[in-house]
Structure formats: C-alpha cells, structure tokens
C-alpha cells in the first residue's frame, strides 16, 4: 500500500534584486521609541556588587541612595518617588533589580517625562529599563521559550511492493504503520492498510485522536503476526 501526496499552491513572494550591505547594526529595542539616556555596560562595570552600584554617578539626573533611586524631573508629589523598573521589558520591583547578577546586564536605559508617558501613572517618576545579555532574565511565574518555525511534514516510509524484483531485501521493520492525519467517514469509521514485516511477532497498535467536538480519545490493542 502506498499513498501519493500532492500539494498545489502559488508563490506569493516575488524575488527582489539583491542589495549589498556594508554594515549591519542589531539593536535590542524596548516597546518605547527613544530613551533619554543609555548606559552601555562594560566589563569593568560588571564587577560591581549590584546593578544600582553600576548606575551610581554614571547616568545624568539619576541619584542612587542605598536601595532607592530618584530620577530628577517631573515626579508625583503624593506617595513614592520610586521609578518604574523593567528587566527585559518585564515590570519588576526594586528587589529584583537588587538581586540580579550584574554580569547579566547588557545596558540600562532611562526614560523620564514624555518618554515615560507610554507607561501611564506607573512611569510618572521615570523608568529604568535594564536589558540582559540575550534576554535571559527569568522571574517566577513566567516561562520563556523559543518557538520553532514550520517545517515540511515527512511521509512515513513503507515498502513499495507494486513492482516485482528478483532480489528483494528482507523487511525487518519494527514500526509498520504511522499516520498523523487519519479522517473518519460519516459513520465514524476509517480504513487503513499496510504491509507487515518479515518478522513473526506481536505488535502494539495504538490509536489516538480528537473528535469534531474537541474530545480526545485513545485505544490500544495487541496484534499477532504469523
């Protein structure tokens, strides 16, 4: 038994003429446009005990006193003057900044006034955005993962016995059949066929699927091949 798969389609992409690129710059951007100040972290800065120590005296208009940071400029007159902290665009409190490893920091960006308006009331006292190397910051309750792209499905290999050969290689397959897309008919039945191998043994049949209502089901059976 064999099945031919034909996929028809049109190419919607037109080839563009090649362009030569002399230099290319890759920038890790935030969700805002342009920060008011960017501190590029060097290797000697990463030897400091904390990220707040790295900021002290290096960013104009930013004052660090112990575990508190004050960004000079427009601020709220009621409540805390603490800025909004972001690590890889994730809002965190100052304790997360204090405990992070300075070796992981790539750069620090500061926003204040109109630049921080995108964050609303949370950014009224300014924003300190910390970006880690390769965005490897993790906080409890958030899982980061890289999603793979689409790939072309492969058709399961099965022998083609339609043509007779004088010298046939013996078939020692242990997996006889696999199909991820079996459709049942209006009565709920589906018919499949496959060639057995030359091994007389017991095989494990597993069927798993999902109904049109979204219900999942599975069944298993042992078959004996003589």
From TrEMBL:
SUPFAM superfamilies on file: Porins
Q: Name one GO molecular function term.
A: siderophore uptake transmembrane transporter activity
One GO term of the biological process aspect: siderophore transmembrane transport
Where the record annotates domain TonB-dependent receptor plug, the positions are 47-127
One family from Pfam that matches here is Plug
InterPro entries per UniProt: Plug_dom, Plug_dom_sf, TonB-dep_rcpt-like
Q: Which UniProt keywords apply?
A: Signal
Q: Name the chain's protein.
A: TonB-dependent receptor plug domain-containing protein
Lineage here is: unclassified sequences, metagenomes, ecological metagenomes
